[in-house]
Write a structure and sequence with these properties.
This protein is of the alpha+beta class. The chain is built from 4 helices and 5 strands. The chain is 16% helix and 11% strand.
């Protein structure tokens, strides 16, 4: 059926402040407004069984000593990922050419991406890398979010 040859992806919206930090909005650089749920099901990779297993790449509450956590039927990682990573990931999995990374000045470029494919991370989490690949594996040290709001210390608009 379709489950055996369909990539399923889930990317949710970011949170809403309900008075925390004195805010009633979602447009901030606080953690509540930045974290989003992201899940992938890749047939034959995230599961070889017909039941629905997935890798939750942004699940909270990890054991701080482990970068990969087995929780029930799925694996999670606390490696940094960004919503920008979704397009290059899905393109690579679907066999569509992934555009090059955007140069610093991309005004003259027709198409480029700023995210990185999650496929190497999925391979690492699933233990599908060779020892040589794993020795060279390097993932993100930081993820950035920019909101050009004008908030004063009181949490309101200044």
């Amino acid at each position: 059926g379709f489950l055996n040859n369909t990539i399923v992806s889930f990317l949710g919206d970011h949170g809403w402040h309900l008075g925390d930090n004195g805010l009633w909005c979602k447009h901030t650089n606080y953690d509540m407004a930045l974290r989003v749920p992201m899940m992938l099901y890749i047939p034959g990779v995230t599961s070889t069984n017909p039941d629905f297993r997935f890798i939750d790449v942004l699940a909270p509450g990890f054991d701080a000593s482990s970068h990969v956590q087995h929780t029930g039927d799925h694996l999670s990682t606390k490696e940094l990922v960004e919503a920008l990573d979704f397009y290059p990931t899905l393109a690579e999995l679907a066999g569509i050419p992934v555009p090059d990374i955007c140069p610093e000045d991309s005004t003259h470029v027709d198409t480029c991406v700023e995210g990185a494919s999650l496929v190497p991370l999925v391979r690492k989490v699933k233990g599908l890398m060779t020892p040589a690949e794993e020795a060279k594996f390097r993932w993100k040290d930081a993820a950035f979010s920019v909101y050009h709001g004008h908030y004063g210390w009181g949490g309101g608009h200044s």
